Amino acid sequence: MLKNVKYLIYKDYGFRINYELLYDLYSPIIGPEAINLYINLFHDSQKAIKTNNLTTFLKDFQDFCGLNQNKFDELRSKLEAIGLLVTYLQKKVNSDEVVYHFVLKEPLSFEQFIDNQKVKHLLVNAIGQLNYEKLEYMYMPSRIPTDSNNVSSTFEMVFNDKSIENVKNYNFEKLYKNIAKNTSTVITLNNRSRQIIENYYENFNLSSSEIEHAIYSCIVENSIGYEADPDLLQNKLHEYVTSAKNITAITNLKLHRNASMFIKNLSSTDKQTIFDEYMNLNAEQYLSAIYKTPLISDELETINQLRNTYKLPDYLINLLVDFTIFKTNGKLNKTYITKIAKTINGLNLSTLNDVYNYFIYKNESVNRILNVNDKEQVQLVKINWDEM
């Protein structure tokens, strides 16, 4: 059968192989044999340049690599699944000749690679959490002295174009095209669904394929056809975020937390964005995202006490952490936050809205009394508020 099977190899202009990335990230997941096949394909593509890209027989290449048909297909599949290879099959008309077109892809950067939570999970499982943390340290960006200020120009400073202010980072046009390819059903996304997708794409390291598959699992019928239910969509995307086990630190996440939320009511959209982050991160992840560092033992002990002693769910812990840090000048005061937890349980407040509205109510009470010209009364209320 392989006598009339030929192949061609393609790669982009300027293609380069980063061998460190291959062996650090890809090899633990797909194995060294698949990596060797990838390297052989790369070197063979170099030869093709000298021979004007003439098609050659696949059997000759397999023999050169020491692979039979089944082993070659197995390793090729691994390269395709991990994103290092794309394969096209061409069957010549009026001929029994078949041509495989192999397109080589460059290894992703460390940040791009771990953006896919499922791939990251496979890597952690393959090398262990400790070795993964070593990789994180190795691929960490250069550490700039703390007394240096970032004076780089921002995108907006250089490209000050009003027409692009409302352009989304996520490519919804591509998403709609992909959906149209995979189903004849017209699926719409309302504004909230689009905002949820945008948030997860920017902040929770989800790939476009994961977002697309999440949409398929939350389609509901509406008055004009079908749409993605935003609540179901958020739950599904949350599953993807939490699917990678043993991950307790997220130090590169941009949070939407806002100190003014405890002084005045935010808009429903802004509040929902913050509440979504409370719901979608466990307490360790949320606190590490605030401080941009892994947690120390005292911080972990405080979270465990709130979770195990006071039986608070992680989303309420995140709200209490935010409130405490804003009230205590950026520090997580264990005594203060456990007092709040005791108060919350005593008042039987169990939802984000309940606890948030209570904080707002307490602050409004303080503000009303602060308008009275009675310094002793003002001081009394301030003490009660701070020691709640």
Q: How confident overall, as mean pLDDT?
A: 81
Major sheet attributes: 4 strands, mixed
- Termini Cα gap: 79 Å
Instruction: Tell me how many strands there are.
Output: 7
Derived from helix and strand composition plus strand pairing, the structural class reads alpha/beta
Structure, explained:
The chain contains 19 helices and 7 strands. Mean pLDDT is 81; it is low at 372-387. Strand 6 and strand 7 form a beta hairpin. The radius of gyration is 27 Å and the shape is elongated. The strands form 2 sheets. The chain has a 4-stranded mixed β-sheet. A 3-stranded mixed β-sheet has the order 5-7-6. The chain has 388 residues and is of the alpha/beta class. 57% of the residues lie in helices and 8% in strands.
Topology overview:
Layout: E1 5-10, H1 19-30, H2 32-50, E2 56-57, H3 58-65, H4 69-82, E3 85-91, E4 98-104, H5 110-115, H6 117-127, H7 129-138, H8 155-158, H9 172-182, E5 187-188, H10 191-203, H11 208-216, E6 219-222, E7 225-228, H12 230-241, H13 268-280, H14 283-291, H15 297-308, H16 314-327, H17 334-346, H18 352-370, H19 375-386
Parallel strand pairs: 1-4, 5-7
Antiparallel strand pairs: 1-2, 3-4, 6-7
Helix pairs in contact: 1-2, 1-6, 2-4, 6-7, 10-12, 11-12, 13-16, 18-19
Write a compact overview of the structure shown.
The protein has 388 residues and is an alpha/beta fold. It has helices at 19-30, 32-50, 58-65, 69-82, 110-115, 117-127, 129-138, 155-158, 172-182, 191-203, 208-216, 230-241, 268-280, 283-291, 297-308, 314-327, 334-346, 352-370, 375-386, and strands at residues 5-10, 56-57, 85-91, 98-104, 187-188, 219-222, 225-228.
